[in-house]
Amino acid sequence: MIVEPGMLEALKKTATSSVAPIPTVVPGHDPIYQTAGDVGNRTLWVVTVIMGLSSLAFYGMAFRQPVQKRLFHILTAFITTFAFLSYFAMSTGDGINYNKITKVETHKHVPDTYQTIYREVYWARYVDWSVTTPLLLLDLALLAGLSGANILVAVVADIIMVLTGLFAAYGSSDGQKWGWYAWACIAFLTIVYQLAFNGRAAVANKDSKTKAFYGAIAGFTLILWTVYPIIWGVADGGRVAGVDAEIIAYAVLDVLAKPVFGFWLLFTHDSMSSTSPSLEGFWANGFGSQGQLRVGDDDEA
């Protein structure tokens, strides 16, 4: 084929105009959804069953005791009952929401792009902790013989710890997230002080078996509770661990901190008379004759 000079110029122009212009902006990314898989969902159901069966066992153990000696049994049964309800909610898809964060990706010579990430937050877990951990603290505080003032401080610090953890889980920026996390850690240290120092001082007045038992079970609890913020830091906080790994880690801790703790406490409680306070009065008998409420009695003239 013979190409005339004019035709060659026309071909060059055509070839040049057919090339698309180079984009000046890097395209954005599709949103990433971090959700639980089959392993995580099965784990939730397993823990639901464990909490349910443990609750039935604790109520059964309570009925074997006179009402005056059921305080530890009732508190411990309530702990696993609320945990059962929480895990049932999470297993069935309730009590779950998404937290959205946006990461900025910088590029040379072109504008920044953004990556949106949606991660599941199991807010039902925080509702569970806000109820069950104060009850667990009551078990330990009553075992040690803590004063009412110290119990109040420990319980309030515990509620603050859980709520600030929830706020941190929904933080949209690192400043929000880790700021709330810091407050939660301060509240946790307050709890540690109440149990490790004031609790040990209070139990020092009791017999050697009670002192040894309190030291063991309180130390066991504080070690477990120390692991919780570590898991939060690599899961909801840093988002290094996946949702399934988060569920499994919390599941192991919850089983140890609630059913295992409960069976240990109650079996030891039932075998040691010194840890079995007898509560009379309103707890066992209701209002006495002088404290009864009367409805419809007319005043005598």
TrEMBL record:
GO terms for molecular function: monoatomic ion channel activity; photoreceptor activity. GO terms for biological process: phototransduction. InterPro entries: Arc/bac/fun_rhodopsins, Rhodopsin_retinal_BS. It holds the Pfam family Bac_rhodopsin. PROSITE patterns: BACTERIAL_OPSIN_1, BACTERIAL_OPSIN_RET. The keyword Transferase does not apply. GO terms for cellular component: endoplasmic reticulum; plasma membrane. The chain crosses the membrane at residues 43-59, 71-90, 151-172, 178-200, 212-235, 247-267. Keywords: Chromophore, Membrane, Photoreceptor protein, Receptor, Retinal protein, Sensory transduction, Transmembrane, Transmembrane helix. It is found in: Membrane. PANTHER family: BACTERIORHODOPSIN _OPSIN, NOPA (EUROFUNG), PTHR28286. Belongs to the archaeal/bacterial/fungal opsin family. This is Opsin-1. The lineage of its organism: Eukaryota, Fungi, Dikarya, Ascomycota, Pezizomycotina.
